[in-house]
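Tutorial, part two.
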Amino acid sequence: MSHHEMHKSAAGPHIFRKDATLDRLAEQFNVAQFVSFAPTAKGPLQQYCRIVDMPANIPFESVNAALHYLFERSGEGTVNIRSFSETQTQSREFLYGLRSVDEVQSALGRLAAEGCFTIVNETIDVSDGGVSGVAMDGLVEFRPDATPRGVERPGFASLPLEWAKSILNIVYGFEPEINAGLIGRLEFSLHPRPHGWRKAHVIHWEFGPSTDIERQAEPAWPNDFSRMIGDKVYGLLIADFLGLPVPRTTVICRRIAPFSFGRDTGSAEQWIRTSPFEQIPGKFTTARGWQDPFRLLQLEDPGHNLIASVLAQQSVPAHWSGAALEDASGKLIVEGTVGSGEAFMLGTAAPQSLPGEVSAAVHSAHRRLRSVLGPTRFEWAFDGERLWVLQLHRGASPTEGASIVPGDAANWLVFEIDRGLEALRELISILPENTGLILDGQVGLTSHIADVLRKAQVPSRINNLPKSVQIDS
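Running the prediction step on this input gives:
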């Protein structure tokens, strides 16, 4: 084979051709299986190849033979063709998901006649439950259902490299090989099934020097990855990584295999919790004791478009439970009640005065979270010795004093708390414009009742704020 690796161009005197660059990348990393060809007067001529269980750059007797071997070892049974010029760094025509040797060979002949170099590589499904993204300068940006270039659109997850490695390790069961992102710019994809010429779970698509674009990790959610595994799950994975106690949790996800994380609470009892794509306060089941998760999904989300996963979570032997959030001025609001706290969160029980040790434990957890994430809100349970995080969300609240959602309205309606959460949702759905709500009853600022109003951005206030509500001065 003739390997004309380098050419001169306006970009510089020594630019490696795309297939030569891919071959060099394969010396250190796992790349998608491929064969490349150069155009000649007689048609395409093989240049490089990396095919599983075969020596690097083994010469095949013909284009047809090379394609047969590639198809046989392609996990999806299809291949792609990328065409490019020797003197241009940009790709030209791209053909995706070709299904037969004859189809590929015909396309290669046509492209060679046009003077194009070509790379034929195995198709790797980007919608297999894995993620693709870019690791650069210790930052990782990634999302499911996209190529690495998907991070050029909003909605990707953004984490420091060590965070991303730890969380992806928990979710997929292996630590992704993306450390090259510490010293340069790495485009990668991660897959539940092994792919590539090294039969590994991470495919490396491109690696080069860092760009001049400076980005900081922004561990915010919801994002497309948190939507895939569930909003509640993503928040708990962040809390767990940051060292906050999270009850031992097994996640049964729609799109990927079950995984577990968290700490032993010392209880043999289980809770079942649904995890929507995005937070819908108090809407779906959280119940003490085991339930059939598949029946639960079918009952509560028959359209498969609301709930991402179901959590089986160890019970916390809770002496006290509650929630904490930052209000519009940055003050921490802490509320809770004796026991497991379901009635409080649903708004059917008023918050109670917390013991000093419980309040101190909540404030300590908040300081740890805030120092890394900025403003946060979280649900918690206290077992007499330790505070456990049950939900974690990022961001401050618009709440000020007794005003859940500050704002003026031409008309105000009174909503009696004992009517319940679903009655409130129904009222909000038919609420006339420029109408606010006054809550009549003892309800917490951190309850699901208040969360629903904040999410709907309805001007609202509590008629009589419970005296037990703790707001930092």
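Residues 356-373 form the longest helix (18 residues). In part three we will examine how such features are distributed along the chain.
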